[in-house]
Amino acid sequence: MKLFSNKSLIILLILVSGYGYIVSCTRDNDMIVPIQLTQPFVSTRGTDILLPGNMTAGNTNEWKVDKTHSSCLWETPYVGAAGLLTGRFNQFGMHDVTNAKAISYVTAGQPLLDSSWAFYENEPAKSYFNGYVQINTSNTGEPGRDAGCNVAGMGTVAIVAGTQNLAYPNLAKIKTTEVKFDPASNGYIVTLDLTYQGKLTAPLTKSIIGKLTYVKKQRVQFGTAAAYDVFGLKLSFQFNCRDFGIVSTSIADKIDIECNMNFNNK
After folding, report:
1. Alpha-carbon torsion angle 180, 182, 188, 192, nearest 10
2. Is residue 210 a contact partner of residue 236, using CB atoms and an 8 Å limit?
3. Are residues 197 and 155 in contact, defined by beta-carbon separation less than 8 angstroms?
4. Within a domain: residue 207?
5. DSSP string, 126-166
6. pLDDT tens digit string along 197-213?
7. By C-alpha distance, which of 148, 196, 146, 132 is closest to 168?
8. Lowest pLDDT segment from 23-27, 112-116, 138-142, 241-245
């Protein structure tokens, strides 16, 4: 009887010890902190300040739009098919086109100075941009479409040789109302007013949200030419063409716009 009691006591102690070990392991596992696989974004913005000034040739403190290497692109789904309709505007610029300036200009070059902008890399509240395109210069690479259905479908007018037509309804323009940091990238969130007439009887202004990317300033040199600095700004946004009376059944409601503006200080 005494031997049985000793064995029972030993078994009981083993069971209690095992339970304690299991409980202690469970508590250790509860205290393990999960590994954070996605780290929070940390910005790496600099302090560049880039301004046009008077756009004087040879003044390295004044930045000029390099229109030859810039572009204003558009794309939209071709309704009823899988492919995209794409194109670019041949004539565009960065100027605040007021109503008084919304006229035709007899010139082959830029009708207005590309000077209505400022960029502060680390102070976006100080940054602003104005831009415009001439709708009838839409270029899809298909001349029949560019001079035909595009003109009629977008309510614009045919190109007149030797003029730059910044009058409505051939004018579409943007003007920023707010530029702020994008919390998820080194870019910026931009609120802008898009003014366009389309096939309406008068221009309409709509507030649009876009995204701005800064391609950092760097020095370049080609061949034996003097070195100079360059930087880029990429603005992308989307608008609903039906808001502006565009009823073409060839294009979708939403038009995506991408402006790739390159600058130099030559």
Report:
1. -60
2. yes
3. yes
4. yes
5. G-EEEEEEEGGGEE-S-HHHHTTHHHHHTT-----TT-EE-
6. 999 999 999 999 999 99
7. 196
8. 23-27
Cα separation, 187 vs 214, whole angstroms: 7
Length of the chain measured in residues: 266
Per-residue pLDDT tens for 120-176? Answer: 999 999 999 999 999 999 999 988 888 777 788 888 999 999 999 999 999 999 999
Q: Which runs of consecutive H residues, i.e. helices, occur in the chain?
A: 2-30, 143-146, 149-153
Query: In 10 A of CB 131, how many CB atoms?
Result: 24
Domain membership of residue 42 (yes or no) is: no
CA dihedral (125, 240, 164, 174) in degrees, to 10, reads -10
| pLDDT value, residue 266 | 95
Return d(Cα 172, Cα 97) in angstroms, integer.
10
Domain-located, residue 35? no
Q: Does residue 20 fall inside a structural domain?
A: no
Q: How many domains does the chain have?
A: 1
pLDDT at 24 over 60: no
**Helix, coil or strand: residue 49:** strand
Task: Give the residue from 220, 183, 184, 48 showing the smallest Cα distance to 118.
Answer: 48
Range of the domain at 243: 49-264
For tokens 């605040």, the residue is 96
Contact in structure between 139 and 90 (CB atoms under 8 Å): yes
